[in-house]
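Q: Start with the shorter request: fold the first protein.
A: Done. Sequence, then structure:
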Amino acid sequence: MTDHGGFAAEYLVRRAEWEKDGTKVKIIGVCDSSCTLYLALPRDQVCVSKSAWLGFHAPTTNNLLEGLPGTATMKRQIYDVFWNGYSAQLQGRLGSLTADLQYIRGRDLFPVIAECTP
């Protein structure tokens, strides 16, 4: 799977559905942004290949929302959903989520995330 991300809500719904039905997710290419929410699946449902690239950043909101009451709170809640979905080991590796994409190669995530087998 190669996925450059999108709306976090869509990924959260899909992740919940896949967790419930046991869908296995193999990250073998690029996994940016909201795609990284799949790392919160149970360990036996998600793996990454050695050559995968995962891009992490702080979630953003649509520019139309900027300046509206509650936007800062909403941004923090979305950030918490991302951050709390990552394992403690992955959080330690990342340090924090910032506006800039922070890339990690799949092989550098072992043993935090399972390696995909052929």
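Q: Next, the second protein, separately.
A: Sequence, then structure:
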Amino acid sequence: MQLRLRTKLTLVMTGLVFLVVVVLSGVYFARLTGQVIQETYNRANELTQQVFAQARRRWQTRGKAGCKRIPTRRRIGAITCGGHSNETKASRKNYRRRLARTPGCTT
């Protein structure tokens, strides 16, 4: 089947327009994706800096308050199995009491 010249030109122009739209959409999508990744990286970096700054301030104020260092868990007599210790409720209760008696210290 032979196509007329007008039909051939219409198909060629339609193909070129379609090609230009696809290329421009790809470029736009690539730039948009890069921008989103950069913004996510910047937010994560800022959040990391805030967390470390808060931890640093907490550590410095902890030293000024005169708090003594209390371990997070009492390990005397505790047997650790698979990352969990079999401490008794009484030892956890004693730890909480010691922590509450220390002025200016919180967990």
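Q: Describe the second briefly.
A: Residues 1-64 form one domain. The CA atoms of residues 30 and 105 lie 51 Å apart.
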